[in-house]
Amino acid sequence: MSTQSIAFSAWQYQGRLWRKARLWFSPLVLLLIWFQVCRTGFFPEQILVSPGVVLETFRELWVSGELQEHLGKSLYRLALGFVLGVVLGITFGVGMGLSKTVERLFSPFFNAIRQVPSIAFIPMFILIFGVEETFKIVIVLKAAFFPVALAAYDAVKGIPQRFVEVAKVYRLPTRHLVSKLVLPSTVPPILTGMRLSLTRAWIVLVAAELLAADSGLGQMMEMGRQMFRIDVVMVGVILTGVVGFVLDRGCQWIERHLVRWNT
Amino acid sequence: MAARLALYVNEEETVEAAGGTLSIRGLCKSYALEDRQVSVLKDIQLDIKPGHFVCIVGPSGCGKSTLLRLIVGLDSDYAGEILLDGARITAPSLDRGIVFQDHRLFPWMRLDENIALALLNHDYPKAEKERRVAEYIRLVNLTGFEKARPHQLSGGMAQRAAIARALVNEPRILLLDEPLGALDALTRVYLQKELQRIWMERRVTMIMVTHDVEEAVYLGDEIIVMDAHPGRIKRSIKIPLPHPRDRASSPLQDIREEILNELTATSPEPDHLEEAVRI
User: Are B64 and B209 in contact (CB under 8 A)?
Assistant: First the structure.
């Protein structure tokens, strides 16, 4: 190995370090400001608690197992509602993409409902499904359904006609048509739709839990608020953010590894 | 196994014997545009002998690409007859290959996988398919690039891969729809030579649509000059010069001049005027 290439790899390594550092830059700055503002004592402690207290509360909630229970409950609802929403969304989207009849029948209704924010459905869903589990799973399902259905519809519509002609010319048998053309050209956009809907579903779920739940991260925050435990609320806020971030990054990672030709 | 192999040998023999005689009788094609019918091709008569290289030239809108789409079988809605070795063409078939202006390689597949795509409808044994793919990759001089993805190839390389994909089935007819139109001038000249070499090696019937009259006279045994609105055959010129040809030879230049005069002599129609203004 020549000195030049060693220098180059050192430079590359530094580049990677810098990228890692950039990732932590904004959270660290925010943390620092938070610290400083707490030290001035400008806000009463019931309104703004210091990062140290939040960390301590986090530890307490973790040791008691309360946090894991809330988090587990929320993630369970998210997973169940998301899987149902994705399955239904893909089915519906592909159906609309393939069949003109299905498209004509459902497209106006679909596009109208799509404009209504998921949160606006919460009161109605509570009336229909009650405040129990069903309501939360249905609201997650609803939030997940639309971005995935839309992505699947666009993906099927967007299969390049040029490639369909190639498939026709070589008379590709149906199973090869699916595996060599339909799946590779539709899976990437559908994955992007799934990523979008997963983070949206997470936001909607936490909001729903804030309003009506007996457990879950949202409920933990709501209880904290009622008992003036702003530290518990902060733990919930931060954890909600972290979970959303991890879900999004995880999906991006899966996308990158499944769609390697797009680089 | 032996019986199966024997079957393939027979099939190859029949392909060679059948050759690829294309006869087009009274072909008409029209589209419905709003409430009126627009005639794209009118009364096309064409006979192409096996192993011939035929080039089709003509102004834009003369229906030359439509003609190729009909021959390949992507469109079966036409009047008249298109017969390949006596059988009417109604759908795509592996005995007709096509190369489009864009290479149309699937971006998610490697070069060898893209070429093997054309063999998916065959039930050859795996080893035979691999042998064929390797043979045709060699034919177009892409050995060593088997594992490359289309975005890693240059335009000329991608187009050569598309030619290999079209030939790997050993079709009776290869249709070329302005295959070199999107390439730079040097690559185009190089690929013209390559195409001539491949044609001389394989002697498969080739029909090529092109805008480039020089390309047409360099490659073609016969040049079909078409006219537009409605698309029809204006003239057919035989070029009885042997291959490989010298691009600069004077008989070739004379024919080129003649065809160019023929193409530019027609009074420009409104859409051509527009085109001229835009340029």
Answer: yes
CB-CB: which of B102, B108, B120 is closest to A162?
Answer: B102
- Cβ contacts of A155 on chain B, cutoff 8 Å: none
Residues of A in contact with B153 (CB under 8 A): none
Q: Residue for token digits 């079966």?
A: B76
Q: What CATH number belongs to B18-89+173-267?
A: 3.40.50.300
Instruction: Give A21-37 as a DSSP string.
Output: HHHHHHHHHHHHHHHHH
Alpha-carbon gap, residue A182 to A167, rounded angstroms: 10
> Chain A residues within 8 A (CB-CB) of chain B?
162-163, 165-166, 168-173, 176, 180-181, 184-185, 261-262
Q: Do B121 and A171 touch (CB under 8 A)?
A: yes
Domain locations in chain B? 18-89+173-267, 105-170
Say what the pTM is.
Answer: 0.77
Whether the Cβ atoms of residue A42 and residue A101 lie closer than 8 Å to each other: no
Asked whether the beta carbons of B210 and B62 are under 8 A apart, the reply is no
Q: Please tell me which of the candidates B74, B94, B104 has its beta carbon nearest to residue A163.
A: B104
CATH number of A52-262: 1.10.3720.10
From chain A, pick out residues whose CB is under 8 angstroms from the CB of B121.
Answer: 170-173
Q: Which residues of B touch A171 (CB under 8 A)?
A: 92-94, 121
- List the structure tokens of B75: 């469109």
| ipTM for the complex shown | 0.82
Q: Which of B97, B102, B108 has the CB atom closest to A261's CB atom?
A: B108
Q: Are A170 and B97 in contact (CB under 8 A)?
A: no
Cα angle A177-A180-A183, degrees, rounded to a multiple of 5 = 90
The phi and psi torsions of B249 (rounded to 5 degrees) equal -65, 145
Nearest-angstrom CA–CA distance, B128 and B116: 11
Is B121 in Cβ contact with A172 (below 8 Å)? yes
Helix (H) or strand (E) holding A87: helix A66-98
> pLDDT (tens digit, 0 to 9) for every residue of chain A, 263 residues total?
455 556 666 666 777 788 878 888 888 999 899 888 888 888 887 778 888 889 999 999 999 999 999 999 999 999 999 999 999 999 999 999 888 898 999 989 998 988 998 888 888 898 999 888 899 999 999 999 999 999 999 999 999 999 999 999 999 988 888 889 988 999 999 999 999 999 999 999 999 999 888 889 999 999 999 998 989 999 999 999 999 999 999 999 988 888 766 54
Q: How far apart are CA A143 and CA A89, in angstroms?
A: 10
Give dist(CA A183, CA B17) in Å, integer.
40
Amino acid in the structure at residue B274 = E
Q: Which of A193, A186, A207, A100 is CA-nearest to residue A145?
A: A193
A190 is written with which tokens? 């559908």
Q: What is the residue extent of each domain of chain A?
A: 52-262
